[in-house]
Amino acid sequence: MCGRYAITLPPKAMRELFGYLDEPDFPARYNIAPSQPVPVIIREGGPRRFLLVRWGLVPSWAKEMPQSILINARAETIAEKPSFRGAFRHRRALMPADGFYEWKAEGRGPKQPYFIRRRDGAPFAMAALWEHWMDPHGSELDTCAVVTTEANATLTPIHHRMPVILHEKDWNLWLDPAATEKELLALLRPVPDDLLEAIPVSTRINRAANDDPSLIERSEPEQVAIPEKPLRRKSADTGQLGLF
After folding, report:
1. Catalytic residue among 64, 102, 144, 220, which?
2. What architecture (CATH level 2) is domain 5-216?
3. Are 172 and 187 in contact (CB under 8 A)?
């Protein structure tokens, strides 16, 4: 799954890379967590648009806010699951990122977080779905979910799932309202094994309130010392029964 990620691309550079006309102003983020606002790029019958949405998809048909947050959509069932099939057919998006985080259990200490990024350091686009939802009182909310697939060889030692990272040549097809289901499903595959690298980072990433450049810097895993069991002394046999 994908539960945290970073996007630090300046607004002008993002607009030039993804080709939308809007001119939004947003800060660099190093520790984006579910339910927070995130930038996505969409297309609705015209040029590409920038949209700020909540990470955690709410289906358009939902009568109330779901208790569980749908932050990921599995590629294998995306065309059939009621929560995602409508958005998959009509409301697909690009989700810009510099990298994402995954955690691996190592020894008896806390899980070790890794920052997964392109080896060349370039930003990329994760495949996403978005929805427009209105609650019973008329309040409106735009939301999204990241599409995930099975992990490639680079990610498998850390986690069995990964976000779908779309090649730039496939961005137009993913956003194309006329794209067929067969064409779209063909895009939902792991990236080549040599595209990404996994960098161990500080466990400070575990706290969503932490959001600064040091979070994506290499930090070697902490060695957790396992205390030795104290030797148990054998008491001398006095031939008498002790009370204590």
Report:
1. 102
2. Alpha-Beta Complex (3.90)
3. no
